[in-house]
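A reminder from the course coordinator: this example appears on the midterm review sheet, so study it carefully.

Given structure:
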């Protein structure tokens, strides 16, 4: 015979004669067995579509299967009361909250799985599958934690004076906070929050300091140097999650694509435009390409370089090649307004009209009075009294354009 539907089954047994609940027996409303399994099955079907492409979905698949098993084995009772004269034997408010949390989490999992399959942009106009997969992994862990709370209600923390479960509304934002901080913690240090944020969303690469400062200005209480759950809730609920709120704050001007190769190996050649992830979120003012390296200038006056590192042309203090953009830290605090890339050197002009050069010094092309290579930006002091407006970099020598002469007097 066929198995009975998940939303059917015997009612929850009548209460004992003393009117109390059996010790540690979970009390689950019949509505749980209609909404939760339906949504879990929907999510599981979405997982199955993508599991071959994304083996990382195994974790949430396990959590969803466990949800269906729990829903099939838990005793149930009427949403009203059970039995005549048993008015005291009703569903506890906490169990009903757990059901609502489970429904919201499963709904969020379905939405995220659909966006992953559609490859919808999720990071400054670009598609990053690692962010989606991380979100789905977190949601799977959330499902498991909620199941544990349902089957072990004696472990619940209903006595909390302040509960992040109730203070944060967006599911992704709630999952992030509960993953890195405790449920009853409503304020954390900025340093602790920043470490958790970068670990979650930046992974291997550090986010540009300027972008983290933008987030800090929004979330941090300057008096306590901490992030409170109130400010966190305001940002995340307004924009649909923490990372979505972060993107809104950064408001990038452009997304950069590149092609080519850093090395001479033709097998490593990128022949189609490929997103440069290391620049996501930065407002780009200028892009300059040399023969074997590239540089970008941000609206903040910061310079990033990558490519072949020979002769120190990248300005990072060595000759290492880089496949991803890196901030030229030697120029920190110096606001630049233009960057130029030659074949084996780089030059920038600052907002104060100063010229800095670095890279191959052969034939004196750096203007530093010698033919030595420079691995970090060096100020061209001989032009200190001449405000530079623009630097142009052909393959070998960089001609300079001084400011135009003042107009003749009237």
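Designed residues:
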């Amino acid at each position: 015979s066929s198995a009975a539907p998940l939303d059917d089954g015997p009612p929850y047994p009548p209460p004992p004669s003393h009117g109390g609940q059996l010790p540690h027996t979970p009390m689950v409303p019949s509505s749980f067995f209609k909404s939760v399994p339906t949504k879990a099955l929907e999510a599981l079907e979405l997982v199955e579509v993508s599991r071959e492409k994304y083996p990382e979905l195994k974790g949430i698949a396990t959590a969803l299967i466990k949800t269906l098993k729990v829903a099939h084995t838990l005793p149930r009772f009427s949403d009203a009361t059970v039995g005549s004269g048993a008015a005291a034997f009703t569903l506890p408010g906490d169990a009903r909250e757990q059901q609502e949390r489970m429904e919201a989490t499963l709904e969020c999992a379905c939405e995220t799985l659909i966006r992953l399959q559609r490859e919808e942009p999720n990071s400054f106009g670009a598609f990053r599958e690692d962010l989606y997969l991380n979100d789905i992994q977190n949601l799977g862990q959330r499902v498991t934690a909620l199941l544990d709370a349902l089957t072990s209600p004696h472990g619940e923390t209903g006595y909390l004076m302040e509960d992040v479960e109730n203070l944060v509304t967006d599911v992704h934002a709630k999952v992030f906070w509960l993953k890195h901080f405790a449920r009853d913690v409503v304020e954390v240090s900025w340093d602790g929050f920043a470490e958790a944020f970068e670990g979650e969303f930046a992974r291997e690469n550090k986010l540009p300091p300027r972008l983290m400062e933008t987030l800090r200005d929004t979330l941090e209480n300057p008096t306590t140097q901490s992030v409170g759950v109130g400010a966190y809730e305001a940002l995340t609920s307004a924009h649909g999650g923490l990372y979505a709120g972060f993107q809104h704050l950064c408001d990038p001007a452009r997304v950069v694509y590149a092609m080519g190769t850093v090395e001479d190996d033709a097998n490593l050649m990128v022949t189609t435009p490929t997103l440069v992830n290391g620049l996501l979120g930065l407002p780009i003012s200028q892009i300059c390409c040399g023969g074997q390296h590239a540089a970008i200038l941000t609206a903040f006056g910061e310079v990033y370089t990558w490519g072949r590192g020979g002769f120190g042309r990248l300005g990072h203090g060595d000759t290492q090649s880089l496949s991803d953009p890196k901030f030229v830290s030697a120029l920190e605090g110096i606001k630049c307004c233009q960057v130029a890339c030659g074949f084996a050197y780089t030059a920038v002009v600052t907002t104060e009209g100063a010229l800095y050069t670095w890279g191959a010094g052969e034939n004196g092309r750096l203007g530093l009075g010698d033919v030595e290579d420079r691995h970090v930006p060096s100020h061209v002091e001989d032009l200190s009294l001449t405000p530079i407006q623009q630097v142009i970099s052909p393959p070998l020598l960089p001609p300079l354009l001084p400011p135009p002469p003042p107009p003749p007097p009237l």
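DSSP finds ten helices and 15 strands in the chain. Confidence is low (pLDDT under 50) at residues 1-26, 77-92.
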